């Protein structure tokens, strides 16, 4: 192990000791009827970490992320998000927790009759309606994701890459504690993938926890060169931490 | 269902952004306004019917209780003598303010609706009619009836009590029908707004999913729908109620001094009734949309 890798490992261990959990799974399983999609997963996502979730198509990456952003609930075991058990969460707790998460879907869900600017600003508005508004750094954010000139366009008018960058901007506008990205580079070219990764790495360096589902191995390698990452692998419904082969 | 303390304030202030987020879909907004307008119109007429029937029955009952009629039937040669005897009895009866014999022309006027004009009463064996005006306190009808039976054979006292009870009953029924109509209108309005709100929520399903993923609370999503439907219902009902009130005012003006519609409509303080219709419509829409929204959001959860 090189000095750089050792430093990254120590950094991860230090972060975990300081902040024990952002998201924790304790023997959590999920399935329909008798069919288990995900079985007995145990995991502790530490603050400030950069996690990749890999696995073949259909292995349950999206289901795993849905569990993380509370769209689904484990059928057995427990999931704790920001220290609160899923079993104890009321619908309002779910909404409150989601405001601390930035979610980027592969299909980038937007409100189509609102402009990109309005879509990106939605989380600020939703937060302001429930509690005090956070600073609105929309213009800066639009510049950061390179959508300054497209802010008045409507989602259907945007290209795949523009939509992904808009989704990223919307995911981070509230400065969330956790960013969950479900194959954000699935529909874009390599150049755009690199650009999105750079944006996520920049956020991670600011202390944000990132969990990104992807089966794009070159992208993982590219990230590894820039930041300390952990790779989780889903196979046959089981979650394992991948070794150095990646 | 719990309504948060700040819900009313938030509702009154409104949230332009929230209303932009929730899409206004197709014909639903206009149908809601139209239905609320029709309901408002009908509600005002139902209210007018209930109030007018109460007023008419009260007037009729007052008129009927204000007097009594004595009918004297006798052979032609004895009619004057019996009439004089009856007047003598009435003059000495406590509680009788005045008594007088109806003239031939008054009797003809009473018969005209049934027998037509140009009657020659001399050829008809008509009884003699006496109009009795009670004093205060009024006479004892039963005691007077017994005295007349003893002193004036063939005299029949009609104190109109047999008309009063059925009239009061009929008026009560009309009022009840009016109140029931109003209730049915309120129920129909609630049902229609529920359907419209449910349909709008179903249409906005994708938007709701996005909002939820971004951390929107159910109360936030519901509020946007509730405000929109409440305002639409209140606006429609205001237009409908205003139209109905204008129509009633025109009917009253056209029938001034008449007997058919003279009492139909609103008088004095009753004009506050139509003003309450938009408020009632808004309240019904608020409750129905809130209920529908939370039920639908629970289903989507």
Protein described:
The complex is a heterodimer of chains A (246) and B (301). Chain A has helices at residues 3-18, 61-68, 91-98, 116-130, 138-144, 160-172, 190-205, 217-224; strands at residues 23-32, 35-45, 50-54, 76-81, 84-85, 101-104, 178-182, 209-213, 229-235, 238-241. Chain A is of the alpha/beta class and 246 residues long. In chain A, helix 4 packs parallel to helix 6 (160-172). The two termini of chain A are 14 Å apart. The model of chain A is unreliable at 130-135 (pLDDT under 50). Helices cover 68% and strands 7% of the residues of chain B. Chain B has helices at 7-13, 16-21, 28-65, 79-91, 104-115, 141-151, 161-203, 205-213, 218-254, 272-300, and strands at residues 68-72, 96-101, 128-134, 155-158. In chain B, strands 2-3-1-4 form a four-stranded antiparallel beta sheet, with helices on one face. In chain B, helix 3 runs antiparallel to helix 10, helix 4 (79-91) packs antiparallel against helix 6 and helix 7 (161-203) runs antiparallel to helix 9 (218-254). The mean pLDDT of chain B is 84. Chains A and B meet through helix 3 and helix 4 of A and helix 2 and helix 8 of B.
């Amino acid at each position: 192990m090189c000095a750089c890798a050792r430093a990254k490992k120590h950094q991860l261990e230090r972060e975990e000791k300081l902040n024990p959990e952002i998201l924790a799974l304790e023997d959590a399983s999920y399935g329909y009827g008798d069919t288990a999609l995900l079985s007995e997963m145990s995991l502790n996502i530490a603050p400030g970490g950069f996690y990749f979730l890999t696995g073949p198509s259909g292995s349950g990456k999206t289901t795993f992320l849905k569990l993380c952003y509370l769209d689904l609930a484990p059928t057995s075991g427990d999931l704790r998000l920001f220290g609160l058990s899923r079993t104890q969460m009321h619908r309002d707790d779910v909404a409150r927790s989601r405001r601390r998460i930035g979610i980027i879907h592969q299909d980038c869900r937007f409100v189509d009759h609102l402009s990109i600017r309005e879509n990106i600003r939605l989380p600020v508005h939703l937060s302001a309606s429930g509690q005090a508004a956070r600073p609105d750094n929309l213009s800066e954010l639009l510049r950061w994701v390179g959508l300054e000139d497209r802010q008045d366009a409507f989602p259907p008018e945007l290209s795949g890459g523009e939509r992904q960058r808009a989704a990223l901007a919307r995911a981070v506008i509230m400065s969330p504690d956790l960013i969950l990205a479900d194959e954000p580079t699935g529909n874009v070219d390599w150049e755009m993938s690199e650009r999105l990764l750079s944006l996520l790495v920049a956020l991670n360096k600011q202390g944000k926890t990132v969990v990104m589902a992807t089966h794009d191995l070159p992208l993982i390698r590219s990230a590894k060169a820039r930041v300390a990452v952990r790779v989780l692998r889903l196979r046959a419904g089981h979650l394992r931490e991948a070794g150095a082969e990646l | 269902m719990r309504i948060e303390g700040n819900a009313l304030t938030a509702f009154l202030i409104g949230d332009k952004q929230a209303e932009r987020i929730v899409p206004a879909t197709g014909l639903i907004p206009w149908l809601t306004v139209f239905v609320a307008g029709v309901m408002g119109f009908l509600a005002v007429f139902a209210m007018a019917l209930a109030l007018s029937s109460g007023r008419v029955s009260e007037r009729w009952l007052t008129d009927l209780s204000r007097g009594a009629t004595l009918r004297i039937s006798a052979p032609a040669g004895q009619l004057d003598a019996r009439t004089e005897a009856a007047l003598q009895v009435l003059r000495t009866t406590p509680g009788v303010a005045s008594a007088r014999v109806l003239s031939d022309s008054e009797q003809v006027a009473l018969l005209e609706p049934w027998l037509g004009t140009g009657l020659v009463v001399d050829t008809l064996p008509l009884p003699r009619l006496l109009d009795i005006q009670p004093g205060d306190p009024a006479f004892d009808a039963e005691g007077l009836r017994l005295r007349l039976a003893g002193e004036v054979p063939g005299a029949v006292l009609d104190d109109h009590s047999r008309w009063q009870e059925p009239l009061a009953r009929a008026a009560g029924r009309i009022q009840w029908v009016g109140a029931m109509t109003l209730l049915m209108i309120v129920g129909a309005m609630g049902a229609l707004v529920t359907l419209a709100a449910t349909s709008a929520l179903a249409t906005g399903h994708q938007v709701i999913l996005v909002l939820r993923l971004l951390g929107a609370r159910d109360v936030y999503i519901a509020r946007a729908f509730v405000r929109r439907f409440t305002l639409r219902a209140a606006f429609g009902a205001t237009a409908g109620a205003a139209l109905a009130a204008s129509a009633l005012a025109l009917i009253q003006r056209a029938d001034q001094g008449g007997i058919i519609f003279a009492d139909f409509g609103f008088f004095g303080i009753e004009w506050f009734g139509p003003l309450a219709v938009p408020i009632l419509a808004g309240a019904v829409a608020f409750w129905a949309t809130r209920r529908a929204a939370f039920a639908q959001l629970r289903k989507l959860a």
